[in-house]
Amino acid sequence: MHPQSSTQRLPQETEEWRPVVGFESWYEVSSLGRVRRTRTGSGTRVGLILRPALDKDGYAFVYLCRESTRKFHRVSRMVAAAFLGPAPIGHQVNHKNGVKIDNQVGNLEWVTRSENRLHAFATGLQTGTRGDQNGRSKLKEADVRVIRAARGHEMQDSLASRFGVDQSTISDIQRGKSWRHVEHLRYSHTWRCERR
């Protein structure tokens, strides 16, 4: 299974390439989250853009190969290491907008495990203390119902501005990727346009 390219791109003027930490003479990673080969190898060529797959948790990964060894690497971690510097002890990568395959450098940050967990709850990506029961949540369950009801009637960027969240958050809610525990509104015929 291959991830779809994210349609919710953060502003990024140019694509910058840097060596992959630990594979400096073999691969480069870009500020947009792409990975390419920089050294020839068996069955490959310089400049080849690797096609990521998704791991069991939904994160994009690639296999990096050198000298007959192959290693699994998450793209987000490679981008963060190359552009944000080494991970502080006990820190992991967080996707600010909650989209696990959006590996642009502007969407990534190093956070502690507890910060990452709180963020997952706040965005509705993880269950437990869910949605508006979590103190860091920007949305209430009533907001989520309004956002879902507005699908097809109001643009996502307008909803994002109204509720103070990223457009990708609106998209995830409307597609049922987040806030799954909140039931969908059931529409009555009064929502439709009546013919006179």
Report what the structure shows.
The structure is a single chain. The protein has 196 residues and is an alpha+beta fold. Among the domains are: 17-84, Homing Intron 3 (I-Ppo) Encoded Endonuclease, Chain A, CATH 3.90.75.20; 138-184. Helices cover 23% and strands 18% of the residues. It contains 5 helices and 8 strands. It has helices spanning 75-84, 113-122, 141-149, 156-163, 167-174; strands at residues 17-19, 27-30, 35-37, 53-54, 60-66, 69-74, 91-95, 108-112. Strands 1-2-3 form a 3-stranded antiparallel β-sheet, with helices on one face. The chain starts with 16 loop residues before the first strand and ends in a 22-residue tail after the last helix.
CATH architecture of the domain at 17-84: Alpha-Beta Complex
Spatially, the strands of the biggest sheet line up as: 1-2-3
Query: Mind telling me the CATH class of the domain at 17-84?
Result: Alpha Beta
| Number of distinct helices | 5
- Count of strand segments: 8
Instruction: Give the terminus-to-terminus CA distance.
Output: 50 Å
**Which stretches are low in confidence, meaning pLDDT under 50 for 5 or more residues running?**
1-12, 185-196
Derived from helix and strand composition plus strand pairing, the structural class reads alpha+beta
Coarse morphology = elongated
Radius of gyration: 20 Å
CATH topology of the domain at 17-84: Homing Intron 3 (I-Ppo) Encoded Endonuclease, Chain A
**Helix and strand pattern:** EEEEEEHEEHHHH
Mean pLDDT value: 78
Roughly what fraction of the amino acids lie in strands?
A: 15-25%
What composes the largest sheet? 3 strands, antiparallel
Helicity level, as a percent range?
Answer: 10-25%
